[in-house]
Amino acid sequence: MADGERLPAMDFMRSEPMQLARIIIPMESAHRAISYLGELGLFQFNDLNKEKSPFQRTYATQIKRCGEMARKLRFFRDQMHKAGVTSSNLAYGSVITLDELEAKLGELEAELIEMNANSEKLEHAYNELLEYRLVLKKMGEVFNSAQKKATAQQREQEHRRGEGSIDSPLLLEQEMETDSSKQVKLGYVSGLVPRDKAIAFERILFRATRGNVFLKQDSIEEPVIDPVSGQKVEKNVFIVFHSGERAKSKVLKICDAFGANRYPFTDDVGKQHQMISEVTGKLSELKTTIDVGQHHWSSVVQSISHQFEQWKNMVKKEKSIYHTLNMLSFDVTKKCLVAEGWCPVFATNQIQKTLVQASTDSNSQIGAIFEILHYKESPPTYFCTNKFTSSFQEIVNAYGVAKYQEANPGVYTIVTFPFLFAVMFGDWGHGICLFLATLILILREKTYSSQKLGDIMEMAFGGRYVIIMMSIFSIYTGVIYNEFFSVPFELFGPSAYACRDPSCRDATTIGLIKVRNTYPFGVDPIWHGTRSELPFLNSLKMKMSILLGVAQMNLGIILSYFNAKFFRNDIDIWYQFVPQMIFLNSLFGYLSLLIIVKWCTGSQADLYHVMIYMFLSPMEDLDDNQLFVGQKYLQLLLLFLALVAVPWMLIPKPFLLKKQHEERHQGEAYVPLGGLDDNLGPELTDGSHGRHEEFEFSEILVHQLIHTIEFVLGSVSNTASYLRLWALSLAHSELSNVFFEKVLMLAWGYNSVVILIIGIIVFIFATVGVLLVMETLSAFLHALRLHWVEFQNKFYGGNGYKFYPFSFALIGDDEE
After folding, report:
1. Which of 213, 286, 397, 723 has the CB geometry, 3.0–4.6 Å to 126, for a possible disulfide?
2. Of 242, 137, 146, which Cα lies nearest the Cα of 185?
3. CA distance 793 to 584
4. Cα–Cα–Cα angle for 506, 489, 503, nearest 5°?
5. Rounded Cα–Cα distance for residues 374 and 682 (Å)
6. Which of 586, 574, 712, 579 lies closest to 637 in space, CA to CA?
């Protein structure tokens, strides 16, 4: 069902009205009804079997079956990853039942496991034959070389004996006539050993046999695949000559300890060639068999990939359905399941139609029953959001989920959050860069949404609409600050000021005269680069920060009024909203008024002196610091109102709450009889306390004292906290200026192409790394703090819980 058919007109200010409902479903249509409700995604089921463990519930067996099928699908996913095959999102084949799917998955798993086992055996045999052929070739070369040397030595000795040289051995004839049966015959062991273990292998052989072996090694140029591990390993071919069975036993044990693969070898040259030809033939046969098996395995995995997504979604849905069915109470006598849960009021008709459709499709003679229940607990909070507003709502939810139908800060966060960010990040050059980068994410959101991105990229993609709003506001504030990578432009005409004397170089505001009308929009470009630029911008941005802070805090207090009015809480209106508005505006609202008057009149009054001596010496004359007539008497009135507002907040509310509690519970000794199953409708009172909860006056008084002190001190600290807008804006501007002047312009002044290219590269990396990444993150976090602490603590409770409906669209990919 399309979103436009099932969702109401979006009311983002307060959460959707919710209701507690009960659904009685016949057994024959229960599965289909839950499935249809999962497609609808507007009903949150309550667990009616909390006292039962997962293994004691009705559908534990079905969940176990789904878990086993999910395990097989994970095995298929690994095989697909191994084959380099991706699953197709298109549905192939006909729809099958869960039993048919279970049987098919079992057959495919058994087939793949058998094919993998056979493939491993064939690969093992193939790699062993490859190593064996290397041993035969390398050792054959060693034996042939040794045989040639021995033949040459024998001929030389015979030649010497024929000449009768005096240097020939006296016992040579006796040695040559010795019986061949009495000569010692040497045995040998040949194979391959990993090259990184070759030195240790040789040393251990020497020590274990006390030097009574002869080892010959030869390295192999290319790494070979080890038959045991299946990994490519650099190895050496070795042959160990030994005498006696005892020495042979030691050599074999050492070979096993070092993971050396042993292969038989013969010193007969004819047999060597015959063995090499046999091994080569077997290798060719095995290679053909492996290729055929690999082709068959790939075709099976490819066929699985076509239906993998369909099977995975089916298993996830079935498992979530049975998990939900386990939350329902099972009535054996009535052969039905009873469900309870929350749903939006606007979804009542849609849920009823869905239940009727499920009964019809299941051929059930009895339809499901949907009824509204009476409730006392607070309902869940549900806001209808779209892909644009959801990221702003998540910023608010990270602080705390709104209480049921509490005023939602997310409405104002859509504008105030990117605006406060832009106040700190005001540069329309940087704003354009940020805008273009985010625009790519938005234009390709369909592609990126189906891909797995990294943690940082996933975070940026999820908040793409927040970032693009931040960039748009940054362009706006950058135009106001008249900064493009810290360079001013005369976008709206020439500057209103000019030098008195054309020869003046180091122009200041004293040396400038106004020759045109005031610059129409933003900061006049003539201020940039002058000695008075920093004092001027400091004064401007600091006062602007105070004005923005006081305005946003006033908005928060006004929203507390709308909350109290909505919940019909007159006490909070008269003893919280009114004194808070009086206190805040008597001090900082008055300061904002003084700032605006000073800007309009061009007065030289010292506002620090005015605010400090408003408390220290309220009766003292203002003299040069007077901005308007009657300012002294207005200050006395505002100071009196601020002092009165503190006990106004502190004292009356606890006593009125106590009186209200006593009146509410005055006649509780006589409780009217009522049915146990009162389904007349929801209780619409805002009282969160239970009917018999005790009223602790001392606790309420202490809580109110803490709340009053927190607000009074917080009014000062929160206003000062908004000065971070000034500090971050100034830091961003100065960093941008440093990179432009000390990197780019410095490189430009050397009149060297190489230095200029290096300077441009350094400037780009510094701008991207520091100003577009670190400064963006810094300004984002500061804007987040201003919203969470300075704005939301004026009205936002954030102690609700989120509405989590049973919906197939919300099932995670990692659910098992």
Report:
1. 286
2. 242
3. 14
4. 25
5. 5
6. 586
The pTM score is 0.80
Question: Which DSSP string do the residues of 602-635 spell out, in sequence order?
Answer: T----HHHHHHHHHH-TTS--GGG--STTHHHHH
Which one-letter DSSP state was computed for residue 526?
G
pLDDT tens across 249-282, in order? 988 999 989 888 888 887 777 787 888 888 889 9
Strands (E), 332-464: 336-344, 369-373
Per residue, the 3-state secondary structure of 290-351, as one string, reads HHHHHHHHHHHHHHHHHHHHHHHHHHHHHHHHHHHHCCCEEECCCCEEEEEEEEEHHHHHHH
CA distance 65 to 101: 11
- Amino acid type, 327: M
Q: DSSP 3-state assignment of 22?
A: strand
- The rounded distance, in Å, linking the Cα atoms of 70 and 50 is 25
Q: What is the DSSP letter of 487?
A: B
Phi, psi (rounded to 5 degrees) for 407: -60, 130
Q: Taking the C-alpha atoms of 392, 396, 401 and 405 in order, what is their torsion angle to the nearest 10 degrees? A: -70
SS3 523: coil
- Residue 611 near residue 642 (C-beta atoms within 8 A): no
* 176-177-178-183 Cα dihedral, nearest 10 degrees: 50
Residue 397 in tokens: 């939810």
pLDDT tens for 65-117 read: 999 999 999 999 999 999 988 887 665 556 788 899 999 999 999 999 999 99
Once rounded to an integer, what is the mean pLDDT over residues 11-29? 91
CB 188 within 8 A of CB 241: yes
Query: What pLDDT, on the 0 to 100 scale, is given for residue 425?
Result: 95
Residue 535 dihedral angles phi and psi, to the nearest 5°: -60, -40
Residues 429 and 733 sit within 8 Å (Cβ to Cβ): no
Nearest Cα to Cα of residue 476 among 385, 550, 566, 415:
415
Torsion (CA) 739, 742, 744, 746 in degrees, nearest 10: 180
C-alpha neighbours within 13 Å on the C-beta side of residue 282: 17
As a whole number, mean pLDDT of residues 678-690 equals 41
Which residues does 303 contact at the CB level (< 8 Å), separation at least 6?
A: none
